[in-house]
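Why do we bother with holo predictions? Because pocket geometry can differ from the apo form. Keep that in mind while you read this record for coenzyme A.
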Amino acid sequence: MKNRLKLRNIGFLWDLEEPLPKSGPKKKAGIRAATRKDSERLRKIVVDAYLPEWSWWVRQIGGKERARADLMSYVSKFLRDRKKRIFVAEDSETIIGFCGAAKYDRGTGTIGYGVAVLPGFRKRGIGSMLLLAALDWLKNSGVRFVTLEEETFGFANQDTPAMILYKSLGGKIISDHHATR
Ligand SMILES: CC(C)(COP(=O)(O)OP(=O)(O)OC[C@H]1O[C@@H](n2cnc3c(N)ncnc32)[C@H](O)[C@@H]1OP(=O)(O)O)[C@@H](O)C(=O)NCCC(=O)NCCS
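The structure, written out:
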């Protein structure tokens, strides 16, 4: 039997009627909505962009190739649906990070599998730019309330980089509980 993992689940909420923080001097250059033509380039980086924070999940799902298949089924679904978008960040033709956004009915939406940036490109504001692009698109499409769920392992008593990012861009924690998987 597989070892059960003690995880922490955190739910975030944005009310887009409240002003979003400005991305400041950082420019939005290099951020755009992906198309189906980007699938192969996304496939190359999808797993690495979640490491090392999600290595527990990669192990649990049965390795990198299974993780890639799972992530690509999410990405492909989002690329095919008019009510969904994958925003990507590029650095000289290479995709270095991405963030999914989906509109639901009645003015609500969600941020797919959160924001992910390749380890070598983190802490330069790229994650913030991706999340702001996704929130901007949702807001301009008439969405008011946006949810996001983050699952963490090994961060029972401290915030993950993703939590720091979500909080710094106005996300409010609406649930925080421990779970086993
Ligand atoms: C979360 C993640 C997307 C952040 O990307 P990033 O490009 O480094 O983010 P930014 O540079 O825009 O940083 C955003 C804020 O978080 C802070 N931050 C980012 N990484 C941090 C770290 N390792 N430790 C402490 N603070 C951190 C930054 O200081 C910044 O705050 P500030 O603007 O107030 O200074 C990136 O760490 C990542 O891809 N992690 C793995 C994937 C993941 O777990 N995604 C969440 C899935 S739900």
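Residues 46 and 68 are 7 Å apart (CA to CA).
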